């Protein structure tokens, strides 16, 4: 195996790693939004406060995806 093949294999593994790292935040965002909708349905008067909390939860969850995106570039 020469160095070109190793570099190609390393790049492919990094892409698969990011794909796996994006699954968790995707599920997390779905859970955050679904629970917010459920809570707004129960108590509509808290909708504005719940939406702010939802956006914070989405931001923190998506930070995991960005870390997963940056990690292969850092260690490559």
From TrEMBL:
It is a multi-pass membrane protein. Keywords: ATP synthesis, Cell membrane, CF(0), Hydrogen ion transport, Ion transport, Lipid-binding, Membrane, Transmembrane, Transmembrane helix, Transport. PROSITE patterns: ATPASE_C. GO terms for biological process: proton motive force-driven ATP synthesis. Residues 14-74 form the V-ATPase proteolipid subunit C-like domain. The chain crosses the membrane at residues 12-33, 54-75. GO terms for cellular component: plasma membrane; proton-transporting ATP synthase complex; proton-transporting two-sector ATPase complex, proton-transporting domain. It holds the Pfam family ATP-synt_C. GO terms for molecular function: lipid binding; proton transmembrane transporter activity. It is found in: Cell membrane. InterPro entries: ATP_synth_csu_bac/chlpt, ATP_synth_F0_csu, ATP_synth_F0_csu_DDCD_BS, ATP_synth_F0_csu_sf, ATPase_proteolipid_c-like_dom, F/V-ATP_Csub_sf. CDD domains: ATP-synt_Fo_c. F(1)F(0) ATP synthase produces ATP from ADP in the presence of a proton or sodium gradient. F-type ATPases consist of two structural domains, F(1) containing the extramembraneous catalytic core and F(0) containing the membrane proton channel, linked together by a central stalk and a peripheral stalk. During catalysis, ATP synthesis in the catalytic domain of F(1) is coupled via a rotary mechanism of the central stalk subunits to proton translocation. HAMAP family: ATP_synth_c_bact. Belongs to the ATPase C chain family. NCBIfam families: ATP_synt_c. This is Unannotated protein.
């Amino acid at each position: 195996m020469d160095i070109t093949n190793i570099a190609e294999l390393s790049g492919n593994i990094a892409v698969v790693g990011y794909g796996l790292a994006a699954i968790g935040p995707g599920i997390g965002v779905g859970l955050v939004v679904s629970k917010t909708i459920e809570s707004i349905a129960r108590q509509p008067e808290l909708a504005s406060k719940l939406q702010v909390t939802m956006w914070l939860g989405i931001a923190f969850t998506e930070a995991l995806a960005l870390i997963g995106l940056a990690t292969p570039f850092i260690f490559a």
